[in-house]
Amino acid sequence: MRFITRQLKLIRLVSSSIGKTALIIPTIFLVAMGINLISLGIIFYAREVFQLRPGPIGWLAAVYSLFYIFGCLFVQPVYSRIAPRYTILVSTLFSGSLVLLLTQLRSVPLLYVFYALFGFFTSIFWPPIMGWLSYGREGTRLNRSILVFNLSWSIPNVIGPLFAGLMSEQDPKAPLYASSVFLFTALLLVAVASILLPKIQRDRYIEAETLRESEAGDKSTLLRFPAWLGLFTAYAALGVVINIFPLYARYSLFFSKSLVGALLLSRALFGMFAFVLLGRTSFWHFKASLIIGSQFCLILILILMLFVRATIFYAVLFASLGFILALIYSISIFHGIAGSRNRSQRMAIHEALLMSGIIIGSSAGGMLYQSSSMSRVFLFCIILIAAGLLMQIGLTLFLRKRERQTA
What is the rounded distance in angstroms from the CA atom of residue 344 to the CA atom of residue 358? Predict the structure, then answer.
C-alpha cells in the first residue's frame, strides 16, 4: 500500500507540472500527421475508386480549402471566446469521424460534401492552438514559439506523404484509415489532459477577454500586408505541387506512388530545415528585401520546372521549393502576429490566405492540366507570382513612404 501511495503522489506531482506546451506539441504532431496522410491519400483514392479526372480532383482540394477559409474567417469570433482545448476536442472528434465516413462512400457528390466538412473542422484547430501557444510572447520568445509550432507540424509534413504513397500502393483507403487513427489519438490525448492535468484545467486563456485591455498597446507591423500577399501567391504554386503534380508524375511520367511521396518528402524535409534555421535567427525579421527576394527565388524554381523531367532534378527543385516556401510561410506568420494582441484572428487571416492560394492553384491548375499540359500549369503559377511580386514592390514602396512621412 505504501508503494502504491508513493506512486500516486509521484503521478500527481508530475501531472501538476505539465503545462500547455507539453500538450500542444504532440497534439499538433498527431493532427498534422492525420491531415498529411489524407491530403495525398485522397488524390489517389478519388482517382482509383471514383475514377475522377484531374479537373474534378483539383476542385475537390479547392472545396476543402474553401470551407477551411470559411471556418477561419467566420467562426473565429466564436472560438476566440472559448478555451482552446474545447475547440481542439470538437475539431479532432468531427475530423476523425469524417475521414472514416469518407472510406464508406459510393457517391461523388457526398465525397465533395464530406471532404468540405473535413476542411471546416480542421480550420477550427490551427488558429486557436497557435494563439494559445504564442500568447504573451514577443521577440525571441515568440520566435521560439513559432519554431516549436512549425517543427510540430512540419515533421509530419515530411513523413506523411511518403507513408501515404506507400499505403496507397497496398490499398487506396489505407491512408484514410491511418489518418482517422491519428486524429482520434489527438482527441484522446487532449480529453485525458483536460481531465487529469491541473495546469491545463486552470489555463482558461480566452483571447476576447484580454483584447479590449490591450488594443491600445497593439504594435503590429505594416509589413504583414506584403508578407500576406506573398503567402497567397506562393501557396497557389503549392496547391499545384501537392494536388496536381502527383497526378502528372504518376500517370504521365509513370513515377510510382512511393516515389511521388518521396518527392513531396524532399520538399517538406528541406522546409523543416528552413524552419529550424529561421527559428534560431532573427536576420529575416522586418526585412522587406527578403519578402520580395523570396518571391524572385520561387519564380526561378518554377521556371526550371518547365524544363526538367528526370527524378533527380525534380528532387533538387522540390527541396529548393520546400526551403523557399518555409521562408515565405515564416515571414507571413511572424509579421502577422508580431506585436498583435489578437493572435488567433491574425492566424485565421494567415490560414485563410494560405488556403485561398491553394484553391487557386488546385482548381485552375487542375483544369489547365486536364485541357492542356503541366507546362501551362507551371507557367500560370509563374505569371500569378510575378503579378503578386509587382504588387508587393509597390506596396512596400508605399509603406516606406508612409513611414518617412509619419516619422
Answer: 21
Nearest 10 degrees: Cα torsion 140, 88, 67, 184? 120
pTM of the model as a whole: 0.82
CA angle 23, 95, 146 (to 5 degrees): 40
**Span 79-122, pLDDT tens digits:** 777 888 889 999 999 999 999 999 999 899 999 999 999 999 99
Q: Helices 311-337 and 126-134 meet at what angle, rounded to 10?
A: 60
C-alpha neighbours within 13 Å on the C-beta side of residue 83: 11
Q: Which CATH homologous superfamily contains domain 18-203+217-402?
A: MFS general substrate transporter like domains (1.20.1250.20)
Is 140 in contact with 131 (CB distance < 8 Å)?
A: no
Burial grade of 253 (CB within 10 A; 0-12, 13-18, 19 or more): middle
Tell me the pLDDT band of 54, cut-offs 50, 70 and 90: confident
Cα separation, 262 vs 33, in Å, equals 16
Is the pLDDT confidence value at 201 over 80?
no
CB of 60 closer than 8 Å to CB of 110: no
Domain regions of the chain by residue span: 18-203+217-402
